[in-house]
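From the shared-data thread, chain only:
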Amino acid sequence: MSTFDLLCGINAEDKKVADAVEAIIPDISNFIDAAFEKMKDGGRLFYIGAGTSGRLGIVDASECPPTFGVDHGLVVGIIAGGDSAIRKAVEFAEDDLNQAWKDLQEYQIKQNDILVGIAASGRTPYVIGALKKANENKMITAGITCNPESEISKCALFPIVPVVGPEFVTGSTRMKSGTAQKMVLNMISTSLMIKLGKVKGNKMVDMQLSNNKLVDRGAKMIMAEIKIDHKQALILLKKHGSVRNAVSSFKRK
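Structure, as tokens:
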């Protein structure tokens, strides 16, 4: 195949992903509503997985503090093999049925927390073992997999199964399956943060001001909300530390 034909083939497969996710929105919605009730009462959201699936959970979790201004412990991503596995595969780490639950104990996991297992194939022992233990401990569990007949989809209280079909390169689940998993994770974390009040309108009013681009974006949000110039907005933002606090302080005057 030519380079052009290769790309067209990959793109043709990728177009199927959004439809697969759309088909299971009711399942995602049911899980989010249940998770929200727990998080309102102090519950935390945990993602666990191995390989690509574990890395996707870590990516989603790590973006929540800067985007929504929440504590780093509110949404946590854990990968089989530990942090070194984020960059380099750790051999056989995913095959230990008991290790994930041990890893979760480091966070003093409790009944009010929520556990999401992520595995494209749906048969990763690391994830299955943790979901079963979480079920025994009366936690809310979800399983994100692209295999509807898998062990994970059977043992999770909330199975979330976008069926994307065979990959362009057979078995390379970092492709369509990985894309579907990332879309679902984006929907879960973003919807939960909105429901928890971390967004106003469609603005990230609690975002961390970690670089000049975000400081400028925050200032523009303030300008649009309370009709002041850029210099005044920057002063308010730097004084109060967030868009939400800056606007609230100005309106209280």
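The mean pLDDT is 94.
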